[in-house]
């Protein structure tokens, strides 16, 4: 293959937001499948989930104690506690079927339905048993009654389509009454590392070589993003080898590559897509991660990430993950404990350490310092040309 002369009739230096939107637009719609709820963790709801029942399903007690009429227990003189006759018991799963009359109460336990004639609870800690009666050290309170449907009512549209199913949401889907849930199909993403110097961990390493951290890091991020990963391994810096590797990604929804997209003579990924595929953009106004490239190879979308380990993982985190999941990047606002410099024409994602509710500069910000991502735990977003002074509020993305 001859060295291609790149033609540059494609956008260059796009913004992070543009890059994200352009990638999302190239991805095929994920389709829907139904999975058992205990397989649904980490998936994305494909349709809204209504409540099939109300929760609580009856008006019930939040405490162990007695249920009675509040009016029977207020206004008792100090030192002369209310005295109520115990006429029955309501347990979770075995309600009291009778009616509690004036001057009476029923023992009740957490989650048990409130008997007819009662509207308040006095907790067991405030009761003194006295034969068939109980003495109340304080008035019974309606605050400890959970109203029927207080959490949700049958028919309520409780969970929206597009919701990421984390552990609390799996619990909520179960409480709504769903044994199976409609979720988006997992996307199938092919993953390829490039570079003559890149070596599989565990193999001997010569001077000038580097272990393939990108493929492992990116595979982990893809799995965190709910994708099935098709491992294409590693290709050397040769157009023919890259060509052959890309052909093996057939059937995937997306190909993610690392390395070979910057300005070097041996950056063949870039040349291959310019020459024989399509390029949607090259270079994003961000650091780390600037040289990223989006394109296509026949029908297959391809995102070419830079080889530098920090760059590839940061581009994945702030561009590829949100495009794949449809979930926005979660940023929080924290006080900067140190200044963070701005770049005139790029959004910076500096590694930051969160400590005592503030975020400070990790220090070594080179895109080859992979430790920084592991040690720092957060990315501080510094918009183009807007330096951050100590004491300013900054937007921070957790890794
Ligand atoms: P490149 O983008 O191909 O010019 O590579 C930039 C830097 O990233 C070089 O120092 C490479 O050795 C390094 N690099 C490339 N691929 C990987 C990889 N898979 N794992 C770790 N480092 C890599
Ligand atoms: Mg390379």
UniProtKB/TrEMBL annotation:
SUPFAM superfamilies named among the record's database cross-references: MoeA C-terminal domain-like, MoeA N-terminal region -like, Molybdenum cofactor biosynthesis proteins
UniProt catalytic activity: adenylyl-molybdopterin + molybdate = Mo-molybdopterin + AMP + H(+)
Annotated GO biological process: Mo-molybdopterin cofactor biosynthetic process
Pathway connected to this protein: Cofactor biosynthesis; molybdopterin biosynthesis
Top-rank taxon, per record: Bacteria
Broad enzyme group: transferase
Domain MoaB/Mog span(s) in chain numbering: 190-326
Keyword Magnesium in record: yes
An example Gene Ontology molecular-function term: molybdopterin molybdotransferase activity
Cofactor(s) listed: Mg(2+)
Gene Ontology terms: cellular component: cytosol
Pfam families: MoCF_biosynth, MoeA_C, MoeA_N
Enzyme nomenclature, EC number: 2.10.1.1
This protein's UniProt keywords: Magnesium, Metal-binding, Molybdenum, Molybdenum cofactor biosynthesis, Transferase
Function text: Catalyzes the insertion of molybdate into adenylated molybdopterin with the concomitant release of AMP.
Family: Belongs to the MoeA family.
Name of the protein described by the UniProt record: Molybdopterin molybdenumtransferase
